[in-house]
Amino acid sequence: MEKTVGPVNLRNTITNNSAAMTGRALFFAFALMGSAWAQTLQLDSADMLKSSGISQSKPAVASSETAAPVAPAKIAQGYLYVEPYQARFEMLMDASRFLHWLNPLKDQPKNLDDAAQKAACSAAREQVLDWCRLSAGGMRIEGNFIGVSVVKGKPGATLPMAPGEALETSEAMFGFTWEFPTPPGPDEIIVEWRGFIEEIQTLPVRIFFGSQSEVLEASTFLPKISWKAQGRLPLPAPLAKVPEITVSDSFPLPVATILWVLGGALFLSFVRLRDQHLPGGSMPFVGAWVLGAVLSWPILNINIGGKAEVPDVIEKKTAEAILTPLLRNVYRAFDHRSESEIYDVLARSVEGELLRKLYLETIQALTLEGREGTRVTISEFSADITGVNPDPDGDGFITECQWTAMGNVGHWGHSHTRVNRYNAKVTITPVGSAWKITQLDVTEARRL
Length: 448
Prior knowledge:
Elements: H1 10-41, H2 45-52, E1 76-83, E2 86-94, H3 95-102, E3 111-112, H4 114-125, E4 132-136, E5 139-141, E6 144-154, E7 157-159, E8 167-168, E9 172-181, E10 188-193, E11 202-209, E12 212-219, E13 224-228, E14 246-247, E15 250-254, H5 255-273, H6 282-295, E16 301-305, E17 308-309, H7 316-333, H8 339-346, H9 354-366, E18 377-390, E19 397-411, E20 414-431, E21 434-447
Parallel strand pairs: 1-11
Antiparallel strand pairs: 1-2, 2-9, 3-8, 4-5, 4-10, 6-7, 6-9, 10-13, 11-12, 14-17, 15-16, 18-19, 19-20, 20-21
Helix pairs in contact: 5-6, 7-8
């Protein structure tokens, strides 16, 4: 059965459709607002500030457990000490790089105990001998490699090490020392460095001369550095003048000539007494006689007279004027570096068996502990005599005295001061026309 549908009301249809669409839109809007509200409730204040752009971000702080270890400092520093008669070159390098160069396949030890230090120094000695070369006055000088040592501290601020002390590898350095004999006042010194190992490309070198210093730099491109004195290097101190002993005039007695003349006169007298004649007459004999006298004149001459007039030394002032320059010249001898030159200067003040003994004892007193070749140069000296007595066994005198010697030496970039004081009994004897020390008995030696 069919129903008849009436005419459609268009306005109602549109209104009903619009209401339905509006309801669906409101539903979706409320749903979106609820989702946004739920998300807003989950944010804290820091996130809200961050999203607003007001807050500033802070760097992340790594925990101590995950922090990377600090790499050891890389050290390469040279020192050149220029002194009268000697130039000494020293170089410091961090232990980590040097040990890696010695044995790249071996892991770096965390600590260097006494055995490890000695092993490394022994292994390195033959490999570093030719690292440093030196020329003075345009001529290459053959030097002496003093050795390798483990050094504690930093360049210019090294610290003393106790015997057998262990060091952390990251805090240790290796030091190398060469010594070169030079003229007393060289105008120019050229150092060539051949020890550019690992990634070392440059080597700053501080040159010390007198109380001054300056810095030059060697590199793989220019491995030579040239230092010019320009009158800035102090010359060695001259030897002190020792009071001389007055010697009377002497004359030579030609013993050989006298014997020749007497022999000829006796022969001629014998011929005349026998009433004989010389072959060829007397003139050839007289000529040979005179020629023999002339030729024998410089042979077997004995000086007559010339005795030393040794004064009696009984006053402290007189004894001090003799003893002080003698002791001062003993120390001046050790400004030289050649053993033969030291002995030659010592022999001007010391006589007999004491010469060798005094050489060894003074070398030991002037050398830094464990630093062969690093010798103190005495700059200040004073002596005080407390008593004077005649020598019962000779023409000299015996003094009871005290003397003080002070000096400085540079090493690893800084200076050491050494002050030694001695109490001793010193015997001084005239030898020829000079006073010399013939006996020295030290009763007390102190390092101040």
